[in-house]
Hints:
The chain is an alpha/beta fold. It is built from eight helices and seven strands; from the N terminus they run αβαββαβααβαββαα. Strands 1, 2, 3, 4, 5, 6 and 7 form a seven-stranded mixed sheet that branches. Helix 3 packs across helix 7. It is globular and about 50 Å long. 30% of the residues are buried.
Amino acid sequence: MKKAIYIVLFFALFQVNAQKNIYETDKFEELSEEHEVLAIIPFLTNLDLKDEISKSELKLLEEKEGYAVQNALETYFSKRKKKKKFSVEFQNIKNTNAILAQNDITFKNIDVYTIKQLSEILEVDGIISGSIDLNVLLSKGVSTDFNFMDYFSGSANYGRIGVKISDGSSGKLLWKYEKEINKKSGKNTNDLIDRMMKLAARKFPYDREKRRDRKKG
Length: 217
């Protein structure tokens, strides 16, 4: 019984922390009023693995993790879109990556381009981007066995992720959500994104109900 209570309290605190780690500009409505399409780009990745591997192999693994987050976000938005939850469309990531490739923009150099430049190239109104720091290969799957001692020893911590939405015309940050990644975050990248975005669903700025409530207020 006590264990069940601890678990309930843990998830309650988890959801509260999710809300605290969200930023939204007070100019969101003004800057996003004409937004119709957003593009999701690969996430910048930093891997700190215990295994000794070459720099070239590490870069390839970082690229794989970055694209895995991009894919997971598209999967999440696609599922929610079926329920008509959003006020914007999301560019197909295959098209996004194809257009980037046609303009010689790769995972290795995408960080030198500004939000405004990427938005113009992709012909979208805004960009969903971010970064992820990991000490495991999340895309391959990780252990989610619950053990309170892991949280004291630090072995339950896998890294941190930050998701950003920026306005294409001005390049300004509209919304940001940061979250620690641990054993309770999910068993793989898709699971992580699905869980964290559901926790932030009420705070997601393009949620139809949220925008409706904001306008009423």
